[in-house]
Amino acid sequence: MPPPLPLPIPIPIPVPFPFLFSSTRLRLLSRRSVRMESTVRSPLPYGNACTTCARAKCRCVPRSGGGGRCERCHRLNKECRVSQGRRKTLPKTLSRSVQLERKMDGLMSLLASSGGRTDLPTPVQRQPEVQGMGQTEVESEREDEETLASEEESLHAFRTQQLQFLPLIHIPATTTAGDLKRQSPFLWRCISAVESKHTARQATLCVRIRELAGKRLLVDCDKSLDLLQGVLVYLAWVTLHSHPQKSSLCMYSQMAIGLVFELGLNKPPPPDLSMTVSNSNAVGHMPGLEASISTRRTMNERRAVLSCFVLTSIIAQFLGRMEPLQWTPHMKQCLDILADSEESPSDGVLVQFTRTRLLADQIFQGPWSEGLYSLNSAQTLAAFHFKALQSRLETIKAEIPIQLADNKPILFHLYDTELSLHEAALVNPLADEEFSPQRLDHLYACLHVVKRFFDLFFTIPPSGYTSLALPYLTQVSHCLVTLFRLSTLDYPGWDKSTVKSTADILVIAEQIATRMGQVADAVGMRSEGVYGDPFSKLGMMMQKLRSEWAVRLPECPEVVADQSSGEPFSSSIEMGDLDWFMNWSEMGWAMEGAGAGGFIQ
């Protein structure tokens, strides 16, 4: 019997698209139908959506039945709040062409208002702010042009006028004020102060210069040729305008000497920067430090070190309490190179200044000068000393080039040095000395040198006095001191009436005071309030000195006239008047005839 057949296994019949009949799909379809119904209503306009939809960046569709809530907030059961603020629309940025057109409209209106003619059509409507913008730009450009012109004028005046009296730097004619301002900013500040014709602005510039010099030199310990040149300009010219203390001459002189040492200008440049002290320390080589000493000497560095020697030598003799920059063999080499240089015509002038000051230092440092400005007797100048020094002076005169034979600055220095050589005769004679022909020869030589000096000084017009550097003012004071002592000296065979007929100190002082009072008007210098120009104050000081001298000079008929003029003069110089000029004091030499080569001791 065959085995029974197996029962048939029921095979499930596949239902087509079962997903269409699932419960999930049915729920989705129901929601979709709701959404489709809601999409029939248009959403709110942009910017009117509720806060919830705006944050979610969804469309805000209001409900058909109302209720105060949108469809989304109703479905999510959230609070539906209408946004309070509205987004601000930024103004449309004008295109570049429109901006240019408006600027042209402003310029056209400016030209039309100034009477200018143009073939371009004038716009009918103009924006007032654009018109004002055009006027401001034109005025700004005009001010910039005036500033540039003023700076170029100041640089030209300094190059052609001031530097002829002390050529401490060579500024080529091709160098503009902008170039110098970028290359030497501190030097340019000092030049601007020297050339300023407005006393209040000049005083402000002088204060800024001192503050900047103190910061860079003492705080930052900076050292550069720019700083050295600026300090030299300050000593030579700015000192007169800044009304400083007398001690500032000594301090700024030491700053200049210190910069010369730090820059190594008094010694030959090293062949390798690693040999310099500023680029190494006790531990070893420090390649990260930038050395301030260069390996190649420039011409302006040579001019700077020689000018520093000349200035500090004159100031040291004037003050009588400091040492000048010491002369070195390398400085002699710099002097010889400048003597053969043809880069600048003023180099020959600086060479003659330096040679003359070397001789003046030898005279001033001699033992015979110890009693020259004191009441104590000192060793007199020996005949062989005098002949050697006089021979050197004649050699310096003979070596002056022909084109510089009549150079006024050189002649001023020669006269001052010659006066220092002969005034050794003013040392108080010994008690047993009755008569000395050599002493009389020196005294008369002093008198004639003083006369030649002031004859040359009065050939300079008042407008040229602003170019005079500090050394020339000390030379004027030196000659006045010597002339006063010659006018009051009691010595056998010495004729005071000859002194008065040759060089009357009262007449000379009156001329100096008058010409100094004319300087401000001659150069267009403007004064405001307490900021008076220094030259007028110097003239007032000379008037008071003249009155004091008139009281002490013998056989002076002008004393009564001065006392009856009604202007009160005290028996001694008022210190406030001297503060007007340079705040120098201790005018003992004016009363007793003893001084230190200057207006004051």
Q: Quick one: biggest sheet?
A: none
Give helix % range.
55-70%
Radius of gyration: 44 Å
**How many strands appear in the DSSP assignment?**
0
Summarize the structure in words.
The chain has 601 residues and is mainly α. 56% of the residues lie in helices and 0% in strands. Among the domains are: 31 residues, no CATH class; 194 residues, no CATH class; 162 residues. α7 runs parallel beside α9. Keywords: DNA-binding, Nucleus, Transcription, Transcription regulation. One of its GO terms (molecular function) is transcription cis-regulatory region binding. This is Zn(2)-C6 fungal-type domain-containing protein. It comes from Penicillium polonicum.
Helix/strand layout:
Layout: H1 23-39, H2 51-56, H3 71-76, H4 96-113, H5 128-160, H6 177-183, H7 185-195, H8 199-219, H9 225-242, H10 247-263, H11 299-319, H12 329-339, H13 347-364, H14 383-398, H15 408-422, H16 437-457, H17 470-488, H18 496-502, H19 505-517, H20 519-523, H21 534-552, H22 558-563, H23 575-581, H24 588-592
Helix pairs in contact: 4-5, 5-7, 6-7, 7-8, 7-9, 8-9, 9-10, 9-11, 10-11, 11-12, 11-13, 12-13, 13-14, 13-15, 14-15, 15-16, 15-17, 16-17, 17-18, 19-21, 21-23
Any key phrases for this structure?
mainly alpha; elongated; zinc ion binding; nucleus
